[in-house]
Amino acid sequence: MNVIHKPASRQSRQAHQHWERGVAQSRKGQWGEALRAFEAALKIAPKDDVYLVNAAKAALESDRIAQALDYSVRALARNPASEVALFIRVAALQRMQNHAETLAYLQSVPEARRNNREYWSALGCALQNTGKQQEAITAFMEALTIQMDDAITHYRMGISFYEMQLKEEASECFRTGLILGLGANALHVHGMLAYAERENCRWVQAAEEEANMRSMVDALDDTARVMTAPFAHVTLTDDPLHQLKACRLMSNNFADIKPVVRRERVRHGERIRVGYVSADFHQHATSVLMAEVFEHHDRSRFEVFLYSHGPDDKTPMRQRIEAAAEHFVELAGASDQDIAQRIAHDQLDLLIDLKGYTAQNRMGVFARRPAPVQATYLGFPGTTGSTFIDYIIGDPVVTPLAHEAHFSEKIAQLPVCYQPNDRQRPRPQPMDRKAAGLPEDALVLCGFNQAYKISPEVLDVWCGFLRDIPNAVLWLLDWHGQARPHLEEELSVRGVDLARIRWAPRLGLADHINRTQLADIFIDAWPCNAHTTASDALWAGLPVVTFMGQTFASRVAGSLLNAVGLSELATESLAAYRAKVLALAADPAERARIRAQLAEARDQAPLFDSARYTADLEQLLERMVVRRDHGARATHLAAIDARPA
Q1: In whole angstroms, what is the distance from residue 198 CA to residue 482 CA?
Q2: pLDDT at 55 over 90
Q3: Backbone torsions φ then ψ of 297, nearest 5 degrees
């Protein structure tokens, strides 16, 4: 999408001079100045399609997405054959994450204008972003028939395979893209490939890619601006400072974004205005955890805004979330700039990101500083590495103040546990082992972590349990079909009779909780623990044994155990982890005691007390805002008024 350097028709000398000035500024990368010059030309010649295309390009580069879209549409009206205007329009819609409109527009393009790689690649992305993965792969293949060595198309096709749970095919696409050369995107794709191979349980290939992503991060200066795959770094590695650097490199990409203009609000006893930003206000794990928090917010003290930039799936959960919010603001399809401006207009006191570096995040909104205090919470188990997020909300276990060097944000601690829970979730109902394919007389060790959390080291320890406990079986989650044969091969290599392995299919929440209670011990993985899976296990009454490390992701299960009064099941060494599992395996009376305690915990423990949790969260949010009210900078906020779990 290069700027066009020749006017399409004779214009007044003054308009032409403005245009020439805009071209000169664009060559210097001064896109804001270029846009002003092109707009000056358009005031004189508003129908000139060349001026319109140049203005569209400058607006896009200046992050003025709505203007870019408007100018490109006007240019296409004047010259429907303009490929430059077409792809500026597509780019603007993509930046707004208005995927359905992007797809509809591309599908309306006449057949005669579809004979280039750019069209098929853009169509593939639009299909991908609207969940039509098989059709997206077909479009990407069309792009590759025109240019087989296009690295980015191979990568994008890998994303569609990945979303279809075809992780091996995804890995090969990622690998092909890397071989062809992905430039500044290479580090990101090495992370994606490492993660996909871990999900495949192809550990040799995964280890190679993990080493690549670690060494590439180590080689970069802290100020470098590159795409990384932060979720892979925080879940696959156990080095918190490495994780911080990987996230900082990602955050650096937002360094040049200018804050939106906002009018500071001076509170005089009015309610605190708090906003939550997410794409997950529907049937999603985040909403399942947060629903009761939204419902319990004290409306006499807090005015709550939910900013939704994700889909409306029309489920009861979506309706529940909308009903719980005083202000539910639908922003799907809006650009980062427009979302930030809307938030700034609402004059919040505090804005909370529920996504972090997870899919469909809008970190670009927070980079624009639409609120005076900004925090990250719940969605991402680690630091953002950014300068524009003031606080990370944690607790004394997942974010101890001794770990402050691991975070770019100031640590804000809830008194017991950072993770909210929904007491309205289904309670376990009677079920027999036969219905779940489990032997009645075995000791069932439950390892319901997703496959990417199972490393060779984890499996070595778990296989050791099978050797030490003759009547034990290992119950694993059959998360996606491609991982299972690789795991079974690894189990066989370790001398395990596959008759001692049981596989659990994916089920709905109620059925999952019912079957989970049938196990004897939940054995956790590391360095990324079970998170929501662990709270589900505790809710089901199943003892959880975990091994805590130094990273946020490796300490979540320990925090959950502390919040139900079972911190003794959170160990800090592999030797202690092994010893605790073996001791529980040999002590049915102790397991029964823990089960009874967990049954009472559903109604009594802080982990499942949503009203208490919300009050604790509100106290913490108020402390953040009051500091701002007094003109003080963000600082670490240690847990206060902590009551015994």
Answers
A1: 11
A2: yes
A3: -55, 135
Q: What is the pLDDT of residue 636?
A: 98
**DSSP states of 194-206:** HHHHHHHT-HHHH
- C-alpha gyration radius of the chain: 27
521-523 and 272-278: which strand pairing? Answer: unpaired
How far apart, in whole angstroms, are the C-alpha atoms of residue 452 and residue 454?
Answer: 5
Report pLDDT digits (tens) over 498-551: 999 999 999 999 999 999 999 999 999 999 999 999 999 999 999 999 999 999
Alpha-carbon span 510 to 630, nearest angstrom: 47
- Cβ pair 455, 195 in contact under 8 A: no
* Residues 307-337: b if buried by 16+ CB within 10 A, e if exposed: bbbbbeeeeebbebbbebbeebbebeebbbb
305 Cβ neighbours under 8 A, 6+ residues apart: 273, 274, 275, 276, 325, 326, 327, 329, 343, 346, 348
Nearby residues of 557 by Cβ (< 8 Å), 6 or more positions away: 524, 529, 530, 531, 534, 544, 546, 548, 570
Give the separation between CA 161 and CA 178, rounded to whole angstroms: 16
Q: Where are the alpha helices (DSSP H) in 260-383?
A: 285-296, 316-324, 336-345, 363-367
Q: How many residues does the chain have?
A: 645
State the Cα–Cα distance between residues 426 and 40, nearest whole angstrom.
Answer: 62
Best CA proximity match to 549, nearest among 265, 171, 242 = 242
Instruction: Assign 3-class secondary structure to 347-371.
Output: CCCEEEECCCCCCCCCHHHHHCCCC
